[in-house]
Amino acid sequence: KTSIKGRDFLTLLDYTPEEVNQLLETAMQLKARAKEKSIQPLLSGKSLGMIFENSSTRTRVSFEVGMTQLGGHALFLSPKDLQIGRGEPIMDTAKVLSRYVDAIMIRTNSHEMVEELAAHADVPVINALTDAFHPCQALADLLTIKEHKPNQGKIKMAYVGDGNNVAHSLLAAGAKAGMDVAIATPEGYEVNQDIFNQAVEAAKETGAILSQTNDPAYAVNDADVIYTDVWASMGYEAEQAARMEVFTPFQVNEALAAYAKPDYLFLHCLPAHRGEEVTSEVIDGGNSVIYDQAENRLHAQKAILASLLS
Ligand code: CP
Ligand code: NVA
Question: What ipTM does the predicted assembly reach?
Answer without folding.
Answer: 0.99
